[in-house]
Design goal:
Layout: H1 4-22, H2 28-34, H3 43-60, H4 69-87, H5 93-121, H6 124-156, H7 160-179, H8 196-199, H9 201-218, H10 221-230, H11 239-264, H12 266-285, H13 294-318, H14 325-350, E1 352-353, E2 359-360, H15 362-372, H16 375-385
Antiparallel strand pairs: 1-2
Length: 394
């Protein structure tokens, strides 16, 4: 695969960015205890990050393609280091949400610039595997980053992971400055207006696909840690082990997903991920049915989400022309984070705390999730039958 060094650096940047984002979710019970935050409001912490990332994506969509990907990553890594450090000084829900809002601004910029950089550099025949490799940063974050961060929080206080991650963000900055090439665009940058990102029908189908994937996932993701602890009575001290096992499985699922897309096509892989999510939603979150264990719930949920995530990124890489790629991906990032925010906020209003401290009303989330989960394969089916994307959809 060409440009292995740059892909490795992007992998590390995404690893730091994802750990910084994921860390707050398993620490939800810790925040609830240390900062006196209601358990059913923990999802708002993750929602704050996604909200600001969405606003930033909309704001910068039409100008990102005027700048080199390297310069965007330099700004993003610098800002993320500062924002991560500020989270360590939070004293209540309001201050923690404020810190997460700032982190979302730069985290969203990093995500957009990283994907645009890889898509610019890697030809179509290698792209699914390259994107899958970059996305394994999510798995490695679960395997190494999150468990290690939880151990640091347990041993030295909840602020310590944020201190460490701010240092890693600075290391990412050094790697970008030293090794990422300045000129990576396939064509000369062009200027275009915001409405051009909204006029094309095929663009809207990509946005809708991303929205359905993220909303259906983030109705559950911010609440899984709290759910397994207070509903399934999973030991809080073993939370790092849960993320370790789930991350190991996700690592291999992501690699498998990239290869399956290249061989079988995106539609079949999307259907597989959607069916897995249906199983885990029904038997993992609806009381009275065959309840799965915490490990099985997390493994299946992450597997289904990863199959759908790689598929979504692969389809998205084929929709826009190269000179509009960063703008489209920025809009997609905005849709992604806004949908995740709405999913997290929606769940915080639907869920409530029962008499014994457990989260209740999951059946409503499952019902909506079962409807949304098949939007992605339906849209891929439509994209395969029509023309309009820059590259053909397989």
């Amino acid at each position: 695969m060409p440009h292995k060094t740059v892909i490795s650096i992007v992998f590390f940047i995404q690893f730091v960015n994802i750990v910084e984002f994921m860390m707050v979710m398993p620490m939800g019970p810790v925040f609830a205890t240390m900062l006196d935050i209601p358990m059913n409001k923990v999802g708002l912490i993750a929602g704050a990050y996604n909200f600001s990332a969405a606003i930033m994506g909309l704001t910068l969509a039409v100008i990102l393609d005027r700048f080199a990907r390297k310069n965007l990553l330099i700004v993003g890594c610098t800002g993320l280091a500062i924002a991560t450090l500020s989270a360590a000084f939070s004293t209540d829900l309001t201050s923690l949400i404020a810190a997460r809002l700032v982190a979302g601004v730069f985290g969203g910029l990093i995500a957009t610039a990283s994907l645009a950089l890889v898509t610019d550099l890697i030809p179509g025949g290698y792209r699914a595997r390259a994107l899958a490799l970059v996305m394994t940063a999510f798995s490695v974050a679960s395997i190494v980053g999150v468990p290690f961060g939880l151990e640091l929080a347990s041993a030295y206080g909840w602020q310590t992971p944020f201190y460490v991650l701010s240092v890693f963000s600075l290391i990412s900055l050094v790697l970008v400055v030293r090794y990422v090439p300045l000129k990576t665009l396939l064509e000369k940058p062009v200027r275009y207006r915001f409405h051009q990102l909204l006029q094309q029908r095929v663009f809207w189908q990509g946005y809708l696909m991303t929205a359905s994937v993220m909303f259906s996932s983030f109705m559950f993701i911010p609440n899984i840690a709290t759910y397994v602890v207070f509903n399934l009575h999973f030991p809080l001290e073993n939370m790092g082990q849960l993320y370790l096992v789930g991350g190991l499985v996700s690592f291999f699922v992501l690699q498998l997903a990239g290869k399956l897309i290249d061989r079988l096509g995106a539609l079949k892989v999307s259907l597989l991920g959607s069916l897995i999510l249906c199983v885990v939603m029904i038997f993992g979150f609806i009381p009275g049915l065959l309840m799965l264990s915490a490990y099985v719930i997390y493994i299946l949920f992450m597997s289904g989400m990863n199959f759908r995530g790689v598929t979504n990124q692969m389809i998205s890489s084929r929709i826009p022309p190269p000179q509009m790629r960063a703008g489209f991906l920025s809009m997609q990032t905005a849709v992604q984070h806004m949908s995740a925010t709405l999913g997290a906020v929606f769940s915080s209003f639907i869920l409530s705390v029962g008499e014994q401290g457990e989260l209740v009303n999951f059946v409503w989330l499952v019902g909506l999730g079962l409807l949304l989960v098949f939007v992605q394969p339906l849209l891929i089916f439509r994209l395969k039958r029509q023309r309009g994307s820059f590259e053909s959809i397989n």
